[in-house]
Every structure is written in C-alpha cells, then in structure tokens.
Write a structure and sequence with these properties.
The chain is about 50% helix and about 15% strand. α1 (about 10-25) packs across α5 (about 115-125), α2 packs across α3 (about 70-75) and α4 packs parallel to α5 (about 115-125). It is of the alpha/beta class.
C-alpha cells in the first residue's frame, strides 16, 4: 500500500515519525514535504498529498500541522477528499469504518507520537463498513457538486 504524507513546519517532526513507522511496517511512502522546520504554509502540502490520493498515486493520505485543523480543512476543499482528525485510535478507525475517509490529519502540538502511531495503524487497517454508511457517504459526495 502507498501512503502520501504532507506536513507544514509545525508537523514536520511528527511526519518524519509517521514515515519511519510506515516504512518499518512495509508501506510505501510518498513524502510531499515539507522537508525541514522552516516556515511554510500547510495548504500547499495538503494539496500535494490530497492529489496523490484522488489521482490514485496513493491509497491514503496522512497530514500533520500544529493542530491538524488547518491542514485537514485545506485537504477537504479538494473534491474527492474525506479527511478527519485522528484524535484517538477509536475515532481514527471509525473515520474509515463509517465515513470512508481517505485522509487523516494530526496535530503535532497537541498529540503524543505514540498515540498518533496507534491512530495511524487503526486508520490504515480498518475497512469501510459500507451498508447504512453508503448513503451518508454519498450525501457527502453530493455536497461537492
């Protein structure tokens, strides 16, 4: 499985931790930056990772910024993206299971690395349940039109 990563300066270190974790588990990673802690703008990196996902270059995307909010809002502006904030492993799994999310975001200033890595694993290994959730996801898709 290929996972695209994107982060701003505040999320850079967390992105690097996630990248190492994913590589250790055998995932392929598309790192869309940023590549250091120099000031930059999170929408630029949300866009790069989101397009990897919607164009089929990656199965999922993981984003990091200071809070997780700005970068997730940015990603969700791109048609076809459903990005939630993975504030714990259970919610991260439910984001996949119920919402068929294809991206997840984390806030480096407010989340512990170990908790984030558990949430990453939960997100990437949980399938979409379908069933009654299909109609809800379709309604989300209709909002994009």
């Amino acid at each position: 499985m290929i996972v695209s990563l994107g982060a701003d300066h505040a999320g850079f270190k967390l992105k690097e931790e996630i990248k190492a974790h994913l590589l250790s588990k055998g995932y392929q990673v598309l790192d869309e930056g940023t590549f250091d802690e120099g000031r930059c703008d999170y929408p630029d990196f949300a866009k790069k990772a989101a397009y990897d996902v919607i164009e089929g270059k990656a199965s999922f995307g993981i984003l990091c910024c200071g809070t997780g909010e700005g970068i997730s809002i940015s990603a969700n502006k791109i048609k076809g993206v459903r990005c939630g904030i993975g504030y714990d492993p259970e919610v991260s799994a439910l984001t996949r299971q119920h919402n068929n999310a294809n991206m997840i975001a984390f806030g480096a200033r407010f989340m512990k690395v170990d908790d984030v890595l558990k949430s990453v694993d939960a997100f990437l290994t949980t399938p979409f349940e379908g069933g009654r959730h299909n109609a809800r996801v379709e309604k989300i898709n209709e909002l994009e039109k």
